Amino acid sequence: MVDTNVDGRITREEVQELIVLSASANKLSKLKEQAEEYALLIMEELDPEGLGYIELWQLEALLLQRDAYMSYSRPLSSGSGSAAQWSQDIGDGGAQEKPATTAAPGRGRWQRWSPRRAAGRARVAAEENWRRAWVLALWVAAMAALFAWRFAQYRRSVAFEVMGYCLPTAKGAAETLKLNMALVLLPVCRITLTRLRSSWARFLVPLDDCIAFHKVIAMAIAAGICLHAGNHLACDFPRLIASSPGEYRPLAGFFGEERPTYRSLLSGVVGVTGVVMVVLMAVSFTLAARPLRRAPTRTRLPSPLGHLAGFNAFWYSHHLLVVVYLLLLVHGWFIFLVTKWYQRTTWMYIAVPFALHVGERTLRALRSKAYAAKILKVCLLPGNVLTITMSKPYGFRYRSGQYVFLQCPTISPFEWHPFSITSAPGDDYISVHIQTRGDWTQELKHIFVENYFSPCLPSRASFGELGMPEQKSPPRLLVDGPYGAPAQDFRNYDVLLLVGLGIGATPFISILRDLLNNIKLADELMDLSMETSRSEDSSNTFSVSTASSNKRRAYRTSRAHFYWVTREPGSFEWFKSVMDEVAEMDKKGVIELHNYLTSVYEERDARTTLLSMVQALNHAKNGIDIVSGTRVRTHFARPNWREEFTRISAKHPGSTVGVFYCGKPTLAKELKKLSLEMSRKTMTRFHFHKEYF
Fold this sequence. Notes:
Helix content is 49%, strand content 15%. The chain has 693 residues and is α/β, with parallel strands linked by helices. The strands form 5 sheets. Strands 16-15-14-11-17-18 form a 6-stranded parallel sheet, sandwiched between helices. A 4-stranded antiparallel sheet has the order 3-10-6-7. A 4-stranded antiparallel sheet has the order 8-5-4-9, covered by helices on one side. The chain crosses the membrane at residues 133-152, 265-292, 313-335, 495-516. Residues 368-489 form the FAD-binding FR-type domain.
């Protein structure tokens, strides 16, 4: 492939041609443009005498040292060797190969059952799921108790003789509906949940699963509606209408002297409110389904469903539930077969959660007006990503890993969209990275590109740095938050394993910046300190101080492993400054950075072998990765997660590792499975947390 004229000598042009072919096969246009530079790099390395060619055995020796070259980036992906040293190794006939580490032979997929192994699995499962288990058990028990209580009550009523078991079944389902209509509001009370994350409640309640619990309750509500409305419409109403005068006489006090008709039952207050509630909830639940909610980016739906799909349809239809709750109060007050006020219990269930939810929404509206942020800088990065840097509003405090809602009144005075905060709590600004996917983000990008960006740099534009008309001011942004997220609890773990897929890296950038700020602070305190010795424990912790307090809060976290997996090489431009700063400031190797580019063939593929060599040589000479343009090495293809988990467990035995993932749901299953498996098989405990974008 290289020696095209078969003369045993390889010229710079031939090396350059092979680099171009490799870059084309892996769709790396940037490398194609710099192929001549990298060909010269290889010639300088292997042809120090300046003969103008290299021999085949020299290139072969370079390629045979693949494993040695590829290890230069561990653990931090910053240069650990020199080109001169590698040249000496090649001249000596190649470096000695390291013994390959092979895993112990497996016993097959189905291992022999043993009480000890079963007990270990049960213990890990209990540690992982006991919070979910007791919450779900309490919820199911409450529904069962309410259903049984109301069923028994109406089983003994006079109406049972006419309506039969349809009546107590419908009433029992109605009682569970009251409970669930109250509970479904609690998992979306974001201000309350954010406060709970900072209290003892986080040890007892699985706050990371709030949205999942919200969906489970919604499914229970749908089942309750079918059971309640179905028994009324198809069973006890027809039996009431068909009852004899003697059978109806005991019920005359509830329905009137004349027997009601089916139409009169449905046209009354209870019937109308019930039917309207069912219709509104059916619309809201249907548009909240994942295929419809993500239709613009996930799938194409036939007309007219295409106009009813998307996040906007989901958002607006969910606000129809405000009408549902008002109708529910009316429906519950005029309920059949009840005469005393204290038997009308619907308002008792809903009053507190509904007031809490309304109060939060009111507070959020008032707070967002006070948190109107001034836009300081906006950058348009490769991959259709907007980076917005805003002034930090007075009194705005947040933790790394949290997120905010943004509203642009120019686009819509009603829509709020969540975005992870990528700045650190100690910064005097707030930054977010927004990937333009949906209608709202596309419109936001359009506003900046059309009105504020200079057209001279189409691939990377920046508001505040490029020349723009001074009479134009950027659009107004309102900030609502911050709100709690799983990643904010990173301080509770000895070691962090942060995994971000594409734009899912955003919540972890704030964590890396926070850790980096504390590394800087620790270095400053060490320089100012007059102490000559420190305890081993304190040397492995970070200290946090604030301007308002002289107290120090110990960081439990001693190591962090960050894995960023993306398909587009341009994505590495998003957080280039953070990567370089970590590589420069983290002298002790506290933070390990691993970039993975999945659009490239795996590292042991022939189509990437030469690129790996160029990558290693360029980093050794210039300290820069040829793909990302940072000091952090870019790995090719997807990570082998089992190997990474094994390496981390071996490196941190007996530690508690917090595994935080943000991305698509597909990878979450694999990471969760490995966390449970490695917790069972090793002394290291992995605790998995996820959030989807």
